[in-house]
UniProtKB/TrEMBL annotation:
A UniProt-annotated Pfam family: HTH_8
One MF term in the entry's GO annotations: ATP binding
CDD domains to which the protein is assigned, alphabetical: AAA
Residues covered by the Sigma-54 factor interaction domain: 306-535
Transmembrane in keyword set: no
PAS domain mapped to chain residues: 1-37
Organism whose genome encodes this protein: Hornefia porci
Protein name: RNA polymerase subunit sigma-54
A Gene Ontology BP annotation from the UniProt entry: regulation of DNA-templated transcription
Keywords of this entry: ATP-binding, DNA-binding, Nucleotide-binding, Transcription, Transcription regulation
Amino acid sequence: MDLLQSVMDSSTHAIFILNQNGIIDHINEQAKTRFGLFNHSQYSHAAGKLEKDDIVILADTAIGADDGNLRPEDLNVLGIHDKKIHAGDACVAVARYDNPECSPVYKFYPGNELEYLKVETEVDGIPVMATIKDRTILVNIKDSQYIINYFLCVAQLIILDGKTGQVKFWEENGYTARKEGAGDILRGGRYIAKSPDFELNVVGHHFSDYFEGDLFETHLSQIMNGEVDCYENQEYRINGFELVASLLPVYNSGTLQYVIVRFRNIEDIQMIIKERNDAIKIVEKSYKETRRERNAVQDERTFLTLFGIGSSADSSRRQAYKLSQLDCNILITGESGTGKSFLAEAISHVQPRKGVFVKVDCSTIVPTLFESEMFGYVKGSFTGADPHGKAGFFEEANGGTIFLDEIGEIPLEIQTKLLNVIQNKVVTRVGSTKAIPVDVRILAATNRDLKAEVAAGRFRRDLYYRLSTFTVNLPPLRDCPVDTYFIINNLIEKIPIKYGIRKKNLSGEAFAKLTSYDWPGNIRELENILEQAIVLSDSDIIYAENIHLENESQMLTMKSRLAAEEKKIILQALMQNEGNKLKTMQQLGISKTVFYRKLKEYDIH
Ligand SMILES: Nc1ncnc2c1ncn2[C@@H]1O[C@H](COP(=O)(O)OP(=O)(O)OP(=O)(O)O)[C@@H](O)[C@H]1O
């Protein structure tokens, strides 16, 4: 055996080496096993085809998928003419081939959500049982058992000789490569002999002669044409198997010589796919169950889907939806990053009130400009003002909604004016005495404990009661881990769109890593981590090692360190300028707005 072959065989990966024309030059033992290129069982059968009166046992988890393109009409040869059976349905049947006088025994299950399907019968005194359960197809014929495990879909076809009752064919891994899918055989195709020493020799043949997969073929031809450098850890469907492969070209003096096709360790992949499918199944199940209970309007469904129907934080979101339909003011509370702004925008989309949505981040407004920014000013009110005067945020939001984010930051004197707006539905511009009527819905949010702020005299009690009549509290992510599933699902759709990249999938392990973390930074932190993982990972699958939770905390530390440095610089500059703020901001080269925001952020008086 040559050295290259020994090296390849010692790998845990399935490897093919293709020449520059796509012809298989080398294949290792793992690849032969993976694709069923040799017979696993100790039994043999001769080559042949279906004959009239043969007994056929068919168990297919999804008609038309990984079964040699079986079509519902192909079942006619088994005496099954059922218009209710469609492509994608699961089906189990025991029947005679090409004998219209014999009635088939069969069951089918619509769609691909099959959990259990079983047929038990007797043909010519031979007991037969075929079951699809727990990702396994099990067929019992007298005392023999035939088992095929699957992850997405598979079909088992067993043929008993119509005269002798002897088993003359059964499916084994590799049936697609051998063109022995159930569809091929029911349509009259021949099957080759199996024996314990049988091996299908694919070396010297084009890869696509035996292995089918559209995306894989596209990528392979891109590599062959030199359009793409390489593909690493991409998800492909080949001969019905979900696989992860890398396509690595080998050049000699600038000319393509070979393409190494390396499939990741099979056990790994099967585990990853199983974990992911299980996790998704659990989520989908709880989603469907809750949906079944409800008979809600489309808007409510869309609204709740954003946050995860059936999640533990569901009650606050349902409450938020109900409140959105009333024209009342709403206070949204919750720790930083729990999605308060996101919820406010969602409310504005589903509420009956139309008009503009004006978002105001109260923490970024310089105290001296608060009044004019909020309520506007008339011409000549103060130096530096727009000579024509200006409408404030409330006037801008007239007829629509204003979202006051970080409402706990509003200075006391402005709180009084805000109360006036709420009670009398009018605003008075700075420099004017004229009251302008405004019709505005107020949504407000804070991560502060406003009750404590009231007790400390920093927030007006009457304003607090006005705002908090309808309060929605968003719990932190750690208190409702189920929400993480839904948010992850939203984010893995949203992030690739934001960055204009392909959608990526999470491995089961990555999913588990994300859901077992307690997310002190809530959804914002989860979003940052997922963004990093999705944008920076090279493959279409996000593995656990792509999720950098520790790095994130280092990044936060870095952020807080930078903030501490910035505060130090501002304090030093203030000292040098003996507290003169104008001189300090000039020395630092920052605008008045930024300077005052920093003073506030770092609590410098
Ligand atoms: N249900 C959700 N699905 C997807 N992304 C979400 C969801 N809720 C929030 N986000 C995202 O999480 C991030 C943080 O949300 P948001 O800014 O609304 O939090 P917040 O509570 O207002 O934070 P802060 O108090 O710090 O202002 C945003 O980027 C937002 O788009």
